[in-house]
Each structure stands twice: as C-alpha cells, then as structure tokens.
Amino acid sequence: MNRFCPRLIVAALRGGAGKTTLSVAMTVALRQQGITVTPFKKGPDYIDAAWLAQAASGPCYNLDTYLMGQDLVARSFSRHAAESAVSIIEGNRGLFDGVNAAGVFSTAELAKLLRAPVILIVDCDKVTRTAAAMVLGCKSLDPEVDIQGVILSRVNGSRHAAVIRQSIEEYTGLPVYGTVPRLTDLPFVQRHMGLIPPEEQNGMPRAMEKAGAIARDYLDIPGLLRVARSASPWSINAFPNPTWLDKTDEEPITIGVIKDTAFQFYYQENIEALTDRGAKVVMIRALDDKVPPPVDALYIGGGFPETHAGRLAENKAFRDSLKAAAEAGLPIYAECGGFIYLGESLTIGNQCYPMAGALPVQFGMERRPQGHGYTTLNVDQENPFFPTGTTINGHEFHYCRILSQSDHESHTAYRVLRGTGMDGQRDGLCRKNILAGFTHLHALGTPEWADALIGAARQHRSAGQNKGACLPLKKRDAGGF
Fold first, then answer.
1. I need a labelling partner for 404 at 20 to 30 A (CA). Which of 135, 205, 275, 379 fits?
2. Taking 50 as the threshold, does the pLDDT of residue 479 lie above it?
3. What's the distance, Cα to Cα, between the start and end of the chain in Å?
4. Domains of the chain, CATH where assigned
5. Which residues are catalytic?
6. CA separation for the pair 118, 15 (Å, rounded)
7. pTM of the model
C-alpha cells in the first residue's frame, strides 16, 4: 500500500563539500520543531552515520546498493522510514560518482531507486556564474534524477551570494534553499579522510547547538521540508518487519560487542540482525573493563585502535582475559580495528604496543591508506562462520599493514577478488574459533553472518567451553526482510 513518505537526499558536486554538516543541521532544526527524523547515509560510511544519529537522537541506517543490492536497500528504507515524519538521506562523494563511468552505485542511482527529491550543495569558492553551469550540467546529465533545489556553500559575502543565486535561478529554474558562508567555528573536525567520530567529541550538546544555529541562520528549513513532503508516495508497507526462522524457545544466547571510543564502527543493521534473531547483545569496553562478562560469542568491530593504543596496551587485565577466552574456544568475529586488537602488537612510529595476542600477527600503522574501497571475497577455506563457496561483498579502509605473521595454528579463509585485504590476495585470518580480517561486511548484504555468529555461539554454549577447534558450520538458509 502506498503512503505519504516525506524524504529528501542531500547531495553535492564532490566529497568534502559540507553534506554532513548541513544534513546534521537540517536534522537538528527539524527535531527542534518537534518533527521526528530518520537519518540514512548512502554508502558504507560509519562516522557520518554516527553524527546523523546524534542529531536525530536515534539510529542512522546505511543504504548501499553494492553491499546490499537494490531490493534490500528499498526494503530497509521502507522498514525504517515508517518510524518518523521525515527521512534525511545524506549522499556520498559527488552526486553522480560511482565505481565506473556509468556512475553505478552512485547517489544519483539511489535517488532514482527511492524516488527521492535531491537538494544539491554547491561549493561556491572562487566561482559565480559557473556555479549555474555546474548545476545545469547535473540537471542535464540524467533528467530522471529529481533535483529540486540548491544550497550555496562557502559564499563570500552578500554580493557574491546574490550573483550566484540569480544565475542559478535564472539558468536552471531551481530555487536556492540556503546560503552558507565560510564557517570557521564548525564542531566537526577532520581526521584521515573523514570527520572525528562523535564518540571522541567533547561538548556534544554544543556541537548540536551549533548545528541548529547553522540551520536557523542560513537554511530555509520550511522550504526544505516542503521539498521532502513533495516526494511521491512510497510503498512503505510493502516489506514487513523481519521474522527469522531460526528463533527458538531456548534461553537467548549472549553476544558481546566491544564498543567504546577505540571500537565504534558498527552498522545499526548488524546489531539489529542479532537482536532480531533473538540474541541478547551486551556492550563491552576494552578500554575500561578489566574482565569481559560471560558471553557465548564476541563481535569486535572497527574503529581507531591506533589513537587509543596506549590505553588498550595498559589494560593488560582485559587483554589477558580476552586471550584466555579465545584460547578456550570462544567464537570471535572481528573486523579491521578488531582484527588489529586481536594481534600480538601494533607499531606506530617507533613505539610498539602489545595487543591481545590471540592471533599470531604483528601490525604497523602507515601514513597512507593500505586498503580503501569496496571488496569482494570468496570463502575458499574452512572457518568458524562461513561455508566454503560463499561470496562476500564488503569494504575496507585501513592505514594498517601486516609487519609479520606466523602460520602457527592459523590460516586464511578468503580469497580476495576485489580489494586489498591482508596482502592483496588473502583476507580473513582464522585461529581457534576466531575469524578476523580487514573487510567490513553489512548484515543485510551478508545475512549468513548473523546466522553463523549465533549458531557458533550456541555450539559453544552447548559444548560447555569447547577445546577451540576451528569448526566449520553447515550452510543455513539465509534470512532476510
């Protein structure tokens, strides 16, 4: 059944043009008016999604057709958009930028899939009338993309803004919904190729207050809301909430998730995939906890262990407890930062920090990314979670590389078809009941993951602390929406 579903996509001509700042500002401003917002982030980004979640005071969901496919993107949007009055979808990179010249997996393709109107942010630094040409080019390149308006960013005074506004409105016919000057007091600080995560940000209330002030001072929020409400009806009830066939009446198994400022990269959908299947999720802090609580399996996501290496190393009690649990056969799945933490050491410059020591590998940080982009992996070796023959789509972004590795009781599970992984050819290191690698996966695109983690946890519980053999699981029917 079709129903009213206000929504808009915030896009730009390039990455780094201010999409996150203005998406957060819009979200805060709408909430200040008592309007509930469900934010979405196009692409595999964790940090922008975390900022949007802070602005909305609720979860942000990722929409990525490479990781999930078009059908599951539409289903996920349908499920979560129904929970609020309006959906704000932040694009990534430039509007038409995808993985090839055809713009496959671009923000523009997502806009067409969701039939969502687009607001285009235009960086006006050192341009006037040319800005109109750029907007006109976007309108002409793919007329099926519903560009409904423009926000001018980094304008240099009222005269500069007036010339660009007149040019855009005259030559493109599009209204301008905001004029934002150069802002020097932004609460969002850059690191590596993105923002510092909100978990590491001091003064979060001030950051949200500043975002609201940006919207109040420079954006036409009533006009943007009208654009969102102009979106065509959406089959919001076409896809029911998930029901999983493998729920049982047994006592719920407990999945520990290490989540603190060192490990913060988790898709909301991954956590929900576990709880939807009946698992109890317990949050654990590697920086502060001395001993992990009793759990049936452990999930360690990505993050920035390099910026917290000293504190992680100092918490020897937790490292030792984690290694002992791994040796006893606790099922552990880890990605990127979690992979690093399970290793023996992390070298940063001239300093070497001891890590948990559950995997026979030593890591070192580099100045440039060692792996960045989408990945495709083929499972070709036995492992604790995935049957051989499985294909996994994921992504990676790491400055870390392997300095040395021992084959002692370990082997790799994946052949890299696309991406870098550990060495350009392999990824996914196994030892005992551990599977860890540089690739991040999304639970909707790889539904086998949640099934497998819960299945391994049940095996571990029923075995009563098994001896740590790397037990391949039989293939299950994949769950889905």
1. 379
2. no
3. 17
4. 7-229 (3.40.50.300), 254-463 (3.40.50.880)
5. 336
6. 16
7. 0.89
